[in-house]
Amino acid sequence: MEEGLSSFWGPVTTTDWCERNYIYSSYIAEFFNTISNIPCIVLALFGLINALRQRFEKRFSVLHISNMTLAIGSMIYHATLQRKQQQGDETPMVWEMLLYIYILYSPDWHYRSTMPTFLFLYGAAFAVFHSLVRFEIGFKVHYVILCLLCIPRMYKYYIHTKDAHAKWLAKLYLGTIFVGSLCWLLDRLFCKNISSWFINPQGHALWHVLMGFNSYFANTFLMFCRAQQRGWNPKVVHCLGLLPYVKIEKPKTQ
């Protein structure tokens, strides 16, 4: 995209998205693509506080932290548009999906040590490989495959959940990922046309915002399902009547 102010970070060395560079600050290449990660950080922080306060399993605290890490990595990447920072955005994306796979499949996995060991080694091997080899299309295909691996299990959890509010969380998850993906795709395919509009709708920034909510809805739904498995009598309640979260009642023995 056309540049505005002079660049503090030097020439762009990675994918350039459909937003004019260095318009508002010489320190931020893509302003809207950078700040649009803030909702994800705030939502993940809220989820982390809830998970710690109610003493959910540590996997959910790690999951919320991974969401924040990914959002911060995305902010740094879009602020600089440098190759190394792009790796700092993409590698946590894969790690996060591996964590989702663990949370989704581990309850029925009989050999408890094998799954986390394999996923850890896989994530470490990917990080090394990705630091050495640049593969844009291959990365997208790999990421989509990891996402698709989660769908059957999410669907199983959905059909076995009777609570209407929990089911609504799953629907919000599907809705945000569909609309967010559409924003990402349109922004990518029709960038030249969009750039000529008087106002750029910032499709990639909308993708960030929607995926921040998407991750939060997914996490909250999984926390509900896991609490149900553990017999913690979960309920979906709302903070200030708007933001849903899971409230549990553990037996006194726990």
Automatic annotation (TrEMBL):
Asked if the Swiss-Prot or TrEMBL record annotates the protein with the keyword Amino-acid biosynthesis, the reply is no
State if Hydrolase is listed as a keyword. yes
Residues bound to Ca(2+) are D16, W17, E19, N21, E30
Q: InterPro entries annotated for this entry? A: ACER, ACER_plant
Q: Name one GO molecular function term.
A: metal ion binding
The record, for Pfam families, names: Ceramidase
Cofactor (UniProt): Zn(2+)
* Major site of localization recorded for this protein: membrane
Q: Where in the cell is it found?
A: Membrane
Instruction: State the similarity comment.
Output: Belongs to the alkaline ceramidase family.
Q: What PANTHER family does UniProt report for this protein, alphabetically?
A: ALKALINE CERAMIDASE (PTHR46852), ALKALINE PHYTOCERAMIDASE FAMILY PROTEIN, EXPRESSED (PTHR46852:SF1)
- Protein's name in the database: Alkaline ceramidase 3
Q: Which organism is it from?
A: Morus notabilis
